[in-house]
Amino acid sequence: MTALWLGVATSGVALAQADAPPGGEALVQEIEQELASGAAALELAEVERAESSYRRALELAQTAQLEPWVQRAHAAVETLPASAIDVVRGRIGDDAPPLDGLRRAAELGPLARDEALLLAVAERDAGRLAASNHQLRSLVERFASTTAQLELARNAAAFGNRKVAFDHARRAADEAPYSPRALRVFVRLGLDAGLASAVAPSVETLARLEPDDAEVAFLTGRMWTAVGDSGEASEALLRATTLDPDHVPARRALGLALADERRFAEARAHLEAVRSAADESADDLELEATLAEVELQLGEADAATARAHRVLEQSSRLPRALFVLGLAANRSGDFDAARGWLERAVTVPTAPPRAHYQLSIACSRLGDRACAEEHLEIYRRMLEASESPLRAAEAPTLMQRKTPARAGGETSDETGSEARSDG
Amino acid sequence: MTRIARVAASVSVLVSAVVSASEVVPAPTSKPTGPSAPAASPPALALRDVTAGSGVDFRGPHSAEKRFILESVSGGVALLDLDGDELLDLFLVGSLTVDTADRPERGRSALYRGTGDGSMFDDVSRAAGADLAGWGVGVCAGDVDGDGRIDLYVTGVERNWLLHNRSGARGLRFEEIASDVGVAGGGWSTGCGFADADGDGDLDLFVARYLDLRLDDLPEFGVGEACHYRDVPVQCGPRGLPGRGDLFFRNDGPGDGVAVRFHEMAREAGLDDAAKLFGLGVTWVDVDLDGRLDLYVANDTGANFLYRNRSRDGAPRFEESAHFDGVAVTEDGKEQGSMGIAVGDYDNNGWPSLFVTNFSEEQNVLYRSQGGDYFQDASFSSGLAAESLPFVGWGTAFVDFDNDGWLDLVVANGHVYPQMDEIRLEASRPYLQRGMLYRNLRNGRFEQIVADRDSDDPLAARRASRGLAAGDIDGDGRVDLVITDLDAETRVLRNVTTGAGHWLSVRLLGRGPRRDAVGAHLTLRTGERRQTRQVLSGTSYLSQHPLRQHFGLGDATRVDEIEVRWPDGSTSSHGPFAVDRRVVIEQPARSLAGSGDTPTANDTTERR
Which residue of chain A is at minimal alpha-carbon distance from B227? Predict the structure, then answer.
C-alpha cells in the first residue's frame, strides 16, 4: 500500500464522496453488523466509490480471509482514481506553480507529495531525466510511493535501460501486488527484458483482476509466446483481438503464434490484416518472414521464396527467412542450396533449433556425416535447453504442462507492442 | 455358414494353394461391386455402424476420470484370418483399470470367428482358449513356428502372452506359451511386431515398452508438474515419469519340447532404446526395399525411431537413423506425442510412406518416401496436418475405401483426459472426439470427408477411440473397419461406399516356415499403373491388419501382373488375374533369388 495514496486520498475521497449516495456510511455499518462480511462491505464501497470505504472493505475481507474480496478491494484501492498523476494535475490545474517555482521550492526543502510528483513529470518532459529521477527517488524514500517507482521505471525504459526499469517495476509490484497499474508495467517490462517466467505469476493475477481487458489478454499472450507455448498464446491473443479488434500488436502477435502453432491458414488471415492496417508494415520483416513460411506450408513455394528473398534484401540475417529458403531447397532436393541458406541461418545467435535440424538433414543428404551429426547434436542440445526451464520445480502453476515449451519458435520483435503502452 | 461348410471351405483353400501357385478363390459371400462404367464423380466414401447384429459385444475398459495413464492407452485389435478359411476373425485385447487390477477376469480378451454370413462374427473366446485374463494392451500376429497358422502376441501391463495357434478341424484353438518360449517379457509393453529381422527364415519379435510403473506405486492424480494439463489436474505422465527400454526377441527355432524358443537381445541388436522413450506404435516395414524389414517405432513425447536393418550373416543388427531419414520429428524439429502408424504407397511411387498420428495441438505427420533413402515431411502440403491439430490420433490405416487404386486414410481419435471438458481451449477438442476419413485426391493431397455430427456416419460419433484394424470382413470387396473405444463398445464399421471400383484381394503363402509371408512385397500392375503393398506385422495403434492384401483397381477389368518379392528374397511373377475376387498366391518352388528369368504363375502351374 503506498503512502502516496494517503495523500491523494484527501482530495480523491472528497471528490468521490460528493457523488456518493446518501446514507452510505450507515449502510456500511448495517452490513458490517449483519454480515461482518468483506464482500458486503466491498459491494457497498463500490456504490460509494470512496477510498475509505474500500479500505474498510479490504480490512474486513482480510479479517474474514475472503481472498477473492481481498484482491478486489486491494485492486479498487489501487485504481481509485485511475492515475495519481492525472489527479495531481487535475487538482492543481491552472493553479499549479510554474516549473521554476517548483524547482526553487525543491531547493529549499522537500516538496509535498503532489508537487514533487508534478515536478518529476515536468522535469522528464523537459528532458532533465536526472532531476526527474531525483524527485522520484525522494518520493520513494519518503513515502514508499508505488507511483514514483513506476515513473522511475518509465524513465529508465525511456532510456533503454531495461534492467533498471524492470527492477523499479518489480518493487512497485511488490508494494502493490494487486494493482493492475503496477502489474501491467511490471509485466510489460519483464516481457521486454525477456523475463517471462519471472512475471508469469503477475500475469495470472492481472488476468484475474481484469479478465476482459484486451491489453491484459495481449500481455498474457506475449507471456505464453515467450515461454514457447503457442497454443496458450494464441488463445490469449485471440481473446485480445476479440475484446479489441483494432489492437494491431495483438493481432500481429496472434498471427505469429498461429504460425508457430502450425495453423497456417488462420495465421495468414491475421498477418495480412496487420499488413493492410499499417502502411509501414512492409518494414515489419519478422511478419514478412512469417508470411513467407506460411506460404511455403500452404504450398506456395514460389511466393514464399520470393518473399523471403525480399526480406533478406533488407535484413540479410533474419533466421526465419533463411530457414524458409533452406527448407524450400531441402524440399526440392537442392541440398547444396539448402546447406548454404541454413549455414547462414545458424550463424545468427537467435537461430532456432529447427535450422540446425534442417541443416543436419541437408548435410546428411550431401554425404557430409560430420556436419550432419554436429548440427543434429546442436539441435538436440537446444531442444533440451528449451525444455529444462519449464521442468524446473519453481515453474508457476500457470505454466504446468504435459507438453512443455516447444522449441523452434522464432525470436520476434515483441517490443513493438509498446505502442499500446498505458503510460 | 455352418461349421462343416467352414471346414470344407478351409480345406478347399488349402488344396487350391497346394496344386497351384496362383489360384482364384471365390469370395464366400462376395458380391462384387465393381462399376459397370467409370464413375463421373468420385464415389461417396461411407461407413455404417453394424456392431449391433455383428456378433461383437466387447467394451473397452471404463474409468470415468482416467486418473492413471495406465487407463488411457490400451485398445489392441487384430483382424485377420486365423483358421485359414479365408474369413477374417477378430481378436480384441482385454484390459483393466486400476480399480479392477486385482480382478484379472474383468479384463478378458475376446476372439470372434468370422462367419461369412450376415452375423459376421461368433464369440469363440473361451472354447478357443483365447480369453486371456489380465491387463492387456496391444496385439500383433505372425506364424512363430512355421506351422502355417498365424499366432497372436498380446502385450500387457505386467506380462505378455503368446497365443500359439493350434487350430484345426475342430475349429479355432490357442495355447498360451509365452513363458515357455521366452517372450513373456515384463513391464508395460505396448506395440509389437514380428519380422524375420536377421534373415534366418523365422520370425523374430520386437516389443515396445512405455513407462516403468508399478501398480502398487502409481503417481497420484493431479499432484506434481507432470500431472497437470492446462492448469487442470489430470493423470500423470508420460513426461516426468520414467520410461522403459524396448525388447527384441530373437527366434531360435524349436527348443526342448517346444515348437519355438526365443531369447531377448535388444541391446545386442541395437534395438533397446537406451534413452527409454515412451514407445507405442510399432511397425516393421522395408523402407528402402532392400529385402530386409526395417523397424519404425512411434514414441510418445519424443523423437520416433527408424531402425535400418543392417543384419548380416544371421546376426541381427540395426542402426537408428530416424533424424537423418527425416522421420523422427516434424520438419521444423518438433518432437511430438506419437501414437499410431500407417504404412502405404499412397502416391503410387513404389515406395512405402509413413503416416503417424499424434497428440492434440500437434499435427499428424505424413512422411513421404523419397525413394527409400529418406523421407520428406508432407504433412501440410498433403492436407493431412491442419485439420488434425485439435485431435489426439491413435489407430490409423491407409485403405482404398472406394477401390479407385489410390490409398485413402482413416484415423481414430480421442483425447486422454476426460478433464479436457473443463478446459476451454479452442485448439483442443473435448475428451470424446470424432474420427477422420480422408479421400486420396491422386495428386499427393487428401481431402477430409467430414460428416455432420448428427449424421449416421459412425466416424462422426464422439468417442475415445484407440485401436483400429481394416479388412474386408463381409467379403464384398470393400474394406471395413473395427475400432476399439475406451469406455464404450468396440465398433464394427461396414464400408458401404457406393460406386466403388473393381478390386483384387491377394493372400500370399510362403514356402517352408514362412507361410505367413510376413515381409513380402507385392507390386500389382494394371496397364501402366502400379501399386505396391507389404505384408506387415503390427502397425496402426497396437493393432494388426489382415495379412491378406487388398487392391482397389478403379475401372480396370484385368490385373496384368503381380510381382512378389518373398521374405527369403526370391521373386516371382503372377497373372493375369480377373478382378473382383480373392486369390491365393503360393511361393513357387523355383522363385528366383536374383535377377533373370522370373517365373510366372503359369510357368509354375505348368511345371506342376
Answer: A402
